[in-house]
């Protein structure tokens, strides 16, 4: 009887959709006004405004108590606390791995594998490696991606193919990187340990990448091209700025060993930052002094330079504007906009959950989703839909994860299946939407229209299809014999 009354008190699905509609409209206006800078505050205000609409409807129409909504907000923010700490550590690693020379060493060695016949494959792999080590597809595309774009155009490759290879590699690395904010966000929103989430994604991500590499390999041999002499200039600029040494590869190697031992993500990330700080002082003392603003490094200036690299922005002169942007880092401070966005999104998700509106919307899906494949298909479809209507991948990830979490629990499906399905759609498809913040940013950075590069983003196009194929085959998908009722 109580369960029946609870169901009767659920808000109407039409009313529940109003906050989502308000959020969609506000985000559309915000994206039109601020473009790729919407994450700097506009999206957060849109989320809080939509949350206030949800609160007013809940209290005004359904007499929901504010204490219930407030408790739901607190629970949501409490659940995201570890994700926020991880994001801050990611910012510290991004700065320390760059200034220490770890990432420049990887880039420098990677540039040597470029050959005109395999340029597209090499570009995809280089961007994948850089994105994997930095955890940022945006940074990869805006830096080494821009360089590769110029090289590819100089070789005579069509701009759509070059942009597609760059974006495919960057989003592959971003998707499975421990340092990626979207990876951490997707896993934490659903409540899956980040290592478990990454390992489970490999079943769909690796096959999608192999398909992309095969397509780029054939295209590279088939398309006309010239020479790739320009790559040596970037390698020389990196060597002139950083001390490039294979010994620096011990830092990612040691980090990989910690990951293999399945230590907690926070412990691994903290250790990775410490390793890089030691390498920074040993291999790049001149750069540490430059960051600290002094001529020579002593104990105090070294300590200051290391801390500034960890928590704040750094800018190093390489003699190349493209590489200057590549080696520039933001540290922990660079993650604050994402942290702010997560907190605001958790407020929106909290009031939607506490008011029962999220459950009301989920009930619609529960009526039609009975098996694994429809559940995954609905999740993938929702991720793409939210990218279209909210124009932001972060919000799409959060909304998809929160919307389907209860549905998967009721159907006895694993949470890691949900987090993977969200990443296979909301994360990788965002760059394919022209009015999405990702699509607008990459089109502007690469100088190629979204509609031009879209057909050649093979990894991004194949990923949601691969998710559906794996779900249909039932590969590595287990069901809980005691689903939530």
From TrEMBL:
Family designation = Belongs to the NhaC Na(+)/H(+) (TC 2.A.35) antiporter family.
Checking InterPro entries in the record gives: Na/H_Antiport_NhaC-like_C, NhaC_Na-H+_Antiporter
Protein's UniProt name? Sodium:proton antiporter
Na+/H+ antiporter NhaC-like C-terminal domain ranges (all copies): 169-475
Instruction: Report the main location listed first in the record.
Output: membrane
Query: Which terms are listed as keywords in the entry?
Result: Antiport, Cell membrane, Membrane, Transmembrane, Transmembrane helix, Transport
| PANTHER family documented for this protein | MALATE-2H(+)/NA(+)-LACTATE ANTIPORTER (PTHR33451), MALATE-2H(+)_NA(+)-LACTATE ANTIPORTER (PTHR33451:SF3)
Localization recorded for this chain is:
Cell membrane
Provide the GO MF annotations for this entry: antiporter activity
Give the source species. Alistipes dispar
Q: Name one GO cellular component term.
A: plasma membrane
Q: How does it sit in the membrane?
A: Multi-pass membrane protein
* Membrane-traversing stretches: 12-31, 43-62, 83-112, 118-148, 200-223, 244-260, 266-287, 299-319, 339-361, 373-395, 453-475
């Amino acid at each position: 009887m109580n369960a029946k009354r609870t169901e009767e008190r659920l808000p109407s699905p039409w009313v529940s959709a109003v906050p989502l509609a308000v959020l969609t409209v506000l985000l559309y206006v915000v994206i039109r006004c601020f473009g790729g800078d919407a994450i700097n505050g506009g999206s957060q205000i849109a989320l809080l405004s939509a949350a206030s609409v949800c609160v007013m409807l809940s209290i005004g129409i359904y007499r929901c108590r504010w204490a219930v909504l407030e408790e739901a907000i607190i629970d949501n923010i409490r659940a995201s606390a570890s994700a926020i700490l991880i994001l801050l550590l990611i910012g510290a690693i991004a700065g320390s791995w760059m200034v220490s020379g770890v990432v420049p060493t990887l880039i420098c060695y990677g540039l040597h594998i470029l050959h005109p016949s395999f340029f597209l494959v090499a570009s995809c792999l280089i961007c994948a490696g850089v994105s994997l080590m930095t955890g940022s597809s945006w940074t990869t595309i805006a830096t080494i991606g821009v360089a590769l774009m110029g090289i590819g155009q100089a070789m005579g490759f069509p701009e759509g193919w070059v942009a597609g290879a760059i974006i495919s590699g960057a989003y592959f690395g971003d998707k499975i990187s421990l340092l990626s904010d979207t990876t951490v966000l997707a896993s934490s929103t659903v409540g899956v340990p980040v290592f478990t989430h990454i390992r489970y994604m490999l079943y769909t991500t690796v096959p999608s990448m192999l398909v992309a590499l095969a397509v780029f390999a054939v295209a590279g041999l088939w398309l006309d091209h010239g020479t790739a002499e320009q790559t040596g200039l970037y390698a020389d600029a990196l060597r002139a700025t950083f001390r490039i040494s294979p010994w620096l590869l011990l830092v990612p190697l040691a980090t990989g060993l910690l990951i293999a031992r399945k230590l907690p993500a926070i412990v691994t990330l903290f250790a990775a930052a410490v390793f890089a700080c030691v390498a920074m002082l040993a291999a790049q003392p001149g750069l540490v002094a430059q960051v600290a603003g002094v001529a020579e490094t002593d104990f105090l200036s070294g300590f200051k330079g290391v801390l500034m690299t960890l928590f704040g922005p750094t800018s190093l002169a390489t003699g190349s504007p493209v590489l200057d942007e590549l080696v520039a880092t933001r540290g922990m401070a660079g993650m604050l906009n994402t942290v702010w966005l997560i907190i605001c999104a958790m407020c929106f998700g909290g009031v939607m959950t506490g008011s029962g509106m999220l459950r009301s919307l989920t009930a619609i899906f529960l009526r039609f989703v009975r098996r694994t494949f429809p559940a995954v298909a609905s999740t993938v479809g929702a991720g793409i839909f939210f990218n279209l209507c909210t124009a932001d991948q972060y919000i799409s990830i959060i909304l998809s994860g929160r919307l389907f979490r209860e549905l998967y629990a009721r159907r006895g499906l694993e949470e890691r299946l949900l987090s993977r399905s969200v990443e296979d759609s909301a994360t990788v498809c965002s760059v394919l939407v022209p009015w999405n913040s990702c699509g607008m940013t990459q089109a502007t950075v690469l100088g190629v229209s979204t509609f031009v590069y879209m057909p050649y983003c093979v990894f991004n196009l194949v990923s949601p299809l691969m998710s559906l194929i794996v779900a249909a085959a039932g590969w590595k998908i287990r069901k809980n014999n005691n689903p939530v009722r």
